[in-house]
Every structure is written in structure tokens, then in C-alpha cells.
Write a structure and sequence with these properties.
By secondary structure, this protein is α/β, with parallel strands linked by helices. Helix content is about 55%, strand content about 15%. Strands 2-5-1-6-7 form a five-stranded parallel β-sheet, with helices on both faces. The longest helix has 28 residues. It binds dephospho coenzyme A and adenosine-5'-triphosphate. Dephospho coenzyme A binds next to α2, α4, α5 and α7. Its EC number is 2.7.1.24. It comes from Komagataeibacter xylinus. This is Dephospho-CoA kinase. InterPro entries: Depp_CoAkinase (IPR001977), P-loop_NTPase (IPR027417).
Length: about 210
């Protein structure tokens, strides 16, 4: 089984890309969704999160806006939150990979925002980075209306710079153009995955197979 890592900065288009890969029949592990499941009503991480930010859980339900505000205002709280969540996300990822291996999958996808930051690229055969110009990234995130500009800056400060991520990628998918163009790039990626030959991969910028 081969593992395709999928990463990119906030709002660069990971979820959109993951949906396209799922539609092509690939199994995708979604680290953000795993975090949300752990933080869902009565989720496993809630008791520890309530100890970290007292008052952010009421009747077994997390006030996500309160947690977001606290974590983005105070780096120590974000570190504490990561300390609670990352080991649980890693364990879920291991279970996902074991299941996929048992089921005989040829390729699976790990959609992980902090793939490089946490060293998860070590378990990937290839890494895809989704990327768009910084102004487009900013506009996309702020349009959602869940984050103030200063909060977005706090997230960006905790993430690797886009240029560094692009340098470490095997494949860069540009999402700042039209959706049609992204789709074209994804089809090309799927063809290379299907062929799994060094020549097909050599068509991409980056490390040879
Ligand atoms: C801080 C929280 C509450 C903000 O929630 P919110 O609904 O605004 O965002 P969501 O979870 O959908 O994440 C959106 C994006 O924010 C970025 N992001 C989230 N957490 C982090 C982090 N610790 N460091 C850097 N970027 C992050 C990622 O690009 C992610 O794709 C939440 O992201 C969280 O609990 N983060 C800690 C866990 C974590 O590290 N998750 C990231 C990958 S496992
Ligand atoms: N290829 C694309 N072309 C045009 N718009 C796109 C493309 N990919 C994503 N978008 C738009 O950009 C926004 C962010 O996309 P998406 O949610 O996939 O990003 P993300 O990286 O998963 O975000 P986050 O890091 O916050 O989880 C969405 O509004 C989406 O519609």
C-alpha cells in the first residue's frame, strides 16, 4: 500500500482536493475531521480541553468559538490543545492505515494540515501540497466569517510558510486558478498514481521516484 500525504496552509483547498480524491475512489484520512469528532458533543477530548480552558465546555458541548479565541490569543493554550489532540489523531491515523492495509488498498490519502510540522511526511510515499497566492488564501478564510484578520495571522504564524511547503512537496496543486484547472491537475495526479511508474512521476517537479 502507498500513502499520499495531502497538506497545505489554512484555506488553500485541502478539503476540496480531498473531496475530489474521495470521488475518485480513494480512502482519505481527514485530520481536521478527526479533531472535530474528538471535540463533538461528549467527545473524548472534551474533559481535558475543559481543564485547559475552564468554561469552554457546557453540558458536554464545546463552544468552539470560545476555544478558538483562547487558543489563538495564547500560544501556550494552543500548545496545550495540540498536546491533547495530536496523540489521539495519530492513534486514529494508525488505525485507519491498518484497516486500509487489511482491506488491500493500493493508495490511501492522509489529509493533514500540519503534515510537515509534525513529521508525518515520513510515513508518506508522496506528498501533495495545495497552494494559492497569499491574497487569495486570506480572502477565502476571512470570507467564512469565523476568524478576525489577527486570528488568521496567529494561525499562519503557527504554520510553515507556503514557499517552504512548496519546496518540500513532490507535487504542487495550484488552487488559485479556476476549479476546472484544479480538476485537470488532479486528473494528471491520478493518472500518475495509477501508473505508479517512475516516468509518470518524473512529469512532476520534485523528487524522482
Ligand atoms: C484551534 C481550533 C479550535 C480552531 O477551530 P476552527 O473551527 O477555527 O478551525 P478548524 O479546526 O476547522 O481548522 C482549520 C484550519 O486551521 C489550521 N489549524 C488548526 N489548528 C492549528 C494549529 N494547531 N496550528 C496551525 N494551524 C492550525 C489548519 O490549517 C486547519 O486546516 C481547532 O483548529 C483546534 O482544535 N486545533 C488544534 C488541533 C490541531 O492542531 N489541528 C490541526 C491539525 S491536526
Ligand atoms: N481549486 C479551487 N478553485 C477555486 N476555489 C477553491 C479551490 N479549492 C478551494 N476553493 C475554495 O477555497 C475555500 C477553502 O477551501 P477548502 O475548505 O477546501 O480549504 P482547506 O485548506 O480545507 O481549509 P482549512 O485549512 O480551513 O480547513 C473554499 O471556499 C473553496 O470553495
Amino acid at each position: 500500500m502507498r500513502v499520499l500525504g495531502l497538506t497545505g496552509g489554512i484555506g488553500m483547498g485541502k478539503s476540496t482536493m480531498a473531496a475530489l480524491l474521495r470521488r475518485a475512489g480513494l480512502r482519505v484520512f481527514d485530520a481536521d475531521a478527526e479533531v472535530r469528532a474528538l471535540q463533538a458533543p461528549h467527545g473524548r477530548a472534551l474533559p481535558a480541553i475543559e481543564r485547559l480552558v475552564p468554561g469552554c465546555v457546557r453540558d458536554g458541548v464545546l463552544d468552539r468559538a470560545v476555544l478558538r479565541r483562547a487558543a489563538l490569543a495564547e500560544p501556550a493554550i494552543m500548545r496545550g490543545l495540540e498536546g491533547i489532540l495530536h496523540p489521539l489523531v495519530r492513534a486514529a491515523r494508525t488505525r485507519f492505515l491498518e484497516r486500509a492495509r487489511r482491506d488491500g488498498c493500493r493508495w490511501v490519502v492522509l489529509d493533514i494540515p500540519l503534515l510537515f510540522e509534525t513529521g508525518a511526511e515520513r510515513i508518506c510515499d508522496r506528498v501533495v501540497v495545495v497552494s494559492a497566492p497569499a491574497a487569495i488564501q486570506r480572502a477565502r478564510v476571512l470570507k467564512r466569517g469565523t476568524m478576525m484578520p489577527a486570528q488568521l495571522d496567529a494561525v499562519l504564524a503557527r504554520q510553515m510558510a507556503d514557499a517552504a511547503r512548496r519546496r518540500r512537496a513532490d507535487i504542487v496543486i495550484e488552487t488559485g486558478l479556476s476549479r476546472h484547472d484544479t480538476l485537470r491537475q488532479v486528473r494528471r495526479l491520478l493518472r500518475a498514481m495509477h501508473a505508479a511508474s517512475p516516468a509518470a512521476w518524473a512529469a512532476y517537479r520534485g523528487k524522482p521516484a
